[in-house]
Amino acid sequence: MYSIAARALDRKCILLQPVSIFKLNYCYYSTQSPLTNKNTSFLSKIKNFSDELNRQVKCGINDFNDDLFYSKYYLKTKPMNQLKRDELVDLQRHKKDILYFIPLFLYLCIPFSTPGLVIYFKYFARFLPSTFSDRDGITKRQISSLRKTQKSTADYIQTLPQKVVSAFPSNISNLHFSPIQYQSWSQLRILSDALGYTLNFMLPKELLLHRIYSYADKLINDDLLILKENSDYIRNGEFKNLTIEDLQDILSQRGINYQNKSYVQLQSILVNYFKLVVTSQINPNSESSVNVPIIEKSNFILTLILFRHIFSKEKEKKTIN
Fold first, then answer.
1. Is 109 helix (H, G, I), strand (E, B) or coil?
2. 206 DSSP 8-state letter
3. CA 134 to CA 118: how far, in whole Å?
4. DSSP code of 34?
5. Domains of the chain: total
6. Within this chain, do residues 143 and 120 fall inside the same structural domain, yes or no?
7. What pLDDT, in 10s, does the model give residues 182-205?
8. What's the burial of 227, exposed, middle or buried (CB within 10 Å: 0-12/13-18/19+)?
9. Quick check: 263 and 247 in contact, CB under 8 A?
10. Quick one: 304 and 172 in the same domain?
């Protein structure tokens, strides 16, 4: 199962002392179907299936409890400005898990509700706490979400001037974007769809802009933190401190499809993203009062969309060849 506490222990970033305060229950749940044995009777298959569901629920609850202790006795004892990026990600993931755990807990309180978990896990998997999914389940949901945003990205590209689209990335220094706030409601709706938001057709222009700028703020702050903690990128153009899971999650958050990519390929994509989207937007003569580089949010979003477009076109060419 996918536990932030177990991941933290794997990173060797914490020392679990004393054990009585924080204890990890390593719980492995296999996604192998228990109904594959053709020699067992129908009742045995039903029993095995029920046992597998109960085991998944037990593992998910145990891992959620581990994450609760990890968050309470380790993450929340440190000031927010002293947390590393992976710790901030863990804390945000756990807060989201708490919200997702509420409806699941209410459902589990219903007598004899276990058989219905099949439907819950299949159709509402995205609303489950991460501790109830293995890594394969999380990547499948990420890839499914990325496929949906790819179409909206292509639709939004069609609304941009052709000279802007054709100039990226070869002439990136001379790109001149029209600020997002001057775009039409229909353009902003498509852009918001491309960023992964839903129900955009119900929102006025002001709320769409708020969504888009909030998305930009989140990614920019995360990008600057990644640069700060990965000095290898500045020297060698690589991110040695990031695992393959980190790379997949980072690219997924930015709407970049990582399907069937190796660790080296993921590194290459992320390096190009930082060169073309992040560092190209940093004005070396412009810093905030706390010495943090300033990135213009409108240009950042539009450059990100263009990077997605170029990356998807290259992927299509490789597929055809």
1. coil
2. H
3. 16
4. T
5. 2
6. no
7. 999 999 999 999 999 999 999 999
8. middle
9. yes
10. yes
